[in-house]
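Sync notes, pocket subgroup
Present: LS, DG
LS reminded everyone that the earlier model was apo-only. Rerun requested with guanosine-5'-diphosphate-rhamnose included. Inputs:
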Amino acid sequence: MSRPRALITGITGQDGLYLAESLIAKGYDVHGVIRGQNNPRRELVEELVPDVHLHNGDLTDLSSLLRALRDSEPDEVYNLGAISFVAYSWENAALTTDVTAKGVLTMLEALRLHSGDDPGRVRFYQASSSEMFGKVQETPQRESTLLWPRSPYGVSKVFGHHMTINYRESYGMHASSGILFNHESPRRGEEFVTRKVSKAVAAIHLGLADELVLGNLDARRDWGFAGDYVEAMWLMLQQDEPDDYVIATGISHSIRDLVRLAFAHVGIEDWPRYVREDERFRRPAEVDTLVGDAAKARRVLGWQPTVSFEELVPMMVQADIEALKAGWR
Ligand code: NDP
Ligand code: GDR
């Protein structure tokens, strides 16, 4: 029997790297779409997952996606590519819409054209987001909760989510949408709050910095570990029927809790001494609080998180300490 084949967009991102590693360990032949003429993250992918085959392509370019599909002939497509930083999406709303919203349609169209008479032959995963719940209308949030996005990013994800459902209903595609709550790791981009905090705390601990500047400390998020969440993506595509699933831990913490825990890992209790709040990092419209109900994923997929917030934060701070010590960046 030939090995199953997967194509991942967003292979250079946090989730793309974890998913590629996980699929390779499961015996997949893994392909990834990489954009740009000299992507600086190509080296990282080649170092961490050397067995991955990379294809040039961009979510805004239909023919490049068709070519990647033709050259990789995947059984499963994971659409993780996006402009994913919420704060940035206000400054670049049109670009965010082109990539994070319309890019999903372009990928779905490429897949529909590629699949010909058999629309269900390639299974599709869309990376939807808890940001779609925005101004939450119900707590905890589940698959049926009304969507009320609060940023151009959130609005774009709602479009991608509904378009995925629409292609499933219109063409019979095996298209699933994972509504994932925040998930983090030592590979998280440094623009996101968990990594910003872990890196700053590591630097303060090593005497390389003396301040951490943040925005809203009262926002609450349901944070899990990225390695756990990519397993849920895979499980969704192993089901006979495509569907939508919330993936979350069910526990929320504030940014303040995050900061306290990160500093505690390096033995600093009087953390407010090092933290300054700056309006610059506040958003035009905030998502105040998110907490997910992953009961359906537990029941149908048998999925549950394995890493708690109390384990995740020290893991990230420690990784940044080791990286700074090693002088890697
Ligand atoms: P990252 O920001 O780490 O990665 C985003 C990826 O998208 C990068 O590989 C990036 O490539 C790629 N990309 C950006 N623009 C384009 C484009 N025009 N064409 C093709 N690829 C592009 O995100 P994560 O790994 O954290 O998240 C993966 C997905 O899951 C995203 O869609 C995100 O919105 C969504 N999500 C993430 C959650 C989280 O907590 N991490 C929670 C819920 C949803 P490049 O390196 O070239 O910039
Ligand atoms: P989020 O993640 O917007 O939830 O989107 P982020 O870590 O950027 O923000 C979380 C919360 O922290 C508050 N915050 C700050 N955020 C950043 N980045 N920098 C700061 O200095 C800061 N100070 C306070 C924010 O206001 C916010 O409330 C992430 C992304 O991965 C999305 O792509 C994904 O869809 C969602 O998670 C689920």
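DG: Residues 93-115 form the longest helix (23 residues).
LS: The chain has a mean pLDDT of 97.
Action: DG to write up.
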